[in-house]
Amino acid sequence: MSNNALFYLTSDDMPVVSHADGIYIWDTKGRRYIDGCSGAITCNIGHNHPTVKRAMAEQLDKIAFSYRTQFESQVALDLADRLVDLTDGDLDKVFFVGSGSEAVESAIKLAVQYFVAKEQPERCKFVSLRPSYHGSTMGALGLTGYEPLEAPYRSITIGSVKVPSPDLYRYKETSIEEHITSVLEQTEKAILAAGAETIAAVVLEPVGGASTGGRIVTKRYMEGLRALCDRYGCLLIMDEVLSGMGRTGAWFAYQHFGVVPDILALAKGLGSGYYPIAAMMARKELVDVVGRSGGFMHGHTYAGNPLACATGLAVIDVMESEQLVSNSLKQGSYLRQQLEQLALKYDCIGNVRGIGLLQGVELVRDKTTKEPYPAAFNAFAKITSLAKDRGLLIYPRRCLNGLAGDHVLITPPLTVTVADIDEIITLLDESLAAFGQIVL
Ligand code: PLP
């Protein structure tokens, strides 16, 4: 056997995974890695958790799969109720899917079907931010503001009206307040230019993930966006696929800003890597309107199956019993302090940003001018590889010409301790020292 049939095998020296426990992963050669990014910011409760394994095994003993048009399952009903209890406002309805892209895709289709049902079919355009990442399926990719991913598919995606994302590091105005005013004005102009009566929804990640390296916004920006949506009669969709489920030190990142969306997309931390499960939550009114028009014309075979929902319930149980949301806030603040110490030591760190255990580090060639590394230098890949050589996993993103420099996310499981963070920082420190030796 050649062992080279895997489509996504990116390098010949990719380690083969063996097993994991807590914050550590081992490969088949016995090397240990500290998971400084929860895989793809997914394993929020850490690896190999006995409570989740037990709940999954118990569910498997009963039934793994049943189809939602033939049976309801108690675990699906219970998980939906738990999610409604954790969220705010009228986010009273939950639609389960299997991935973040599917959750965003469901949000797009619910918004469109809602306006069709309200006899406003012209409301079918979306406004989203640049940079942003909303997933890899055609609708979600259409919303995504990330040139390398968009470019090959531009001719066949739905596309969206792209507006600037607030950038509290590289803004050009004289203050953050002025910057926010300017970004909101540009957003309103874009809505009007596209035809406000044609906009179905504005979509954003309340705290940026991979696309922006933990970029945060301000309360006034969020309130301004909500006001724009209300003024022009469109919906506000928040993509919390990455920032939700305690990652930022609140159950959902929108809670930091006190602005509740009409539709919320969740994924990664909900299944915490144990099983694919994601959700779209929506205001009851939207679901009622669509229900009266014949029901939501959308669904996936595996959606809300018992094994997925039992996993989600066990993950929430662990998060509550181990108080992982408050740990995320507490340890996130310690991690931030330590990253800022590294920023004082290394000129290549231009900015540290984020909330809770969603922290991003932007690398720059010149700290004073904030000049990014040339894209061809692939700083993001170099630092990630240096860290991996030292047994530390971090999550990289490439430089976006003119929009963002190379950055890495430091997003360990929410179970992380001070000692774990100290280990991550020591290995990152060594990796940055080695990075500094590479001649441009
Ligand atoms: N939305 C955001 C904000 C994400 O970060 C991601 C994945 O990284 C997605 C959507 C897509 O999720 P998935 O990869 O599960 O389809």
Automatic annotation (TrEMBL):
Note whether Transferase occurs among the keywords: yes
- List the Pfam families: Aminotran_3
Query: Superkingdom of this entry's organism?
Result: Bacteria
Which Gene3D superfamilies is this protein grouped with? Answer: Aspartate Aminotransferase, domain 1, Type I PLP-dependent aspartate aminotransferase-like (Major domain)
Q: Tell me which CDD domains the record gives.
A: OAT_like
Q: Report the InterPro entries cross-referenced here.
A: Aminotrans_3, Aminotrans_3_PPA_site, PyrdxlP-dep_Trfase, PyrdxlP-dep_Trfase_major, PyrdxlP-dep_Trfase_small
Keywords from UniProt, A to Z, are: Aminotransferase, Pyridoxal phosphate, Transferase
Gene Ontology molecular function, alphabetical: pyridoxal phosphate binding; transaminase activity
Cofactor(s) listed: pyridoxal 5'-phosphate
Family assignment from sequence similarity: Belongs to the class-III pyridoxal-phosphate-dependent aminotransferase family.
Its name, as the record gives it, is Adenosylmethionine-8-amino-7-oxononanoate aminotransferase
Species the sequence originates in: Neptunomonas antarctica
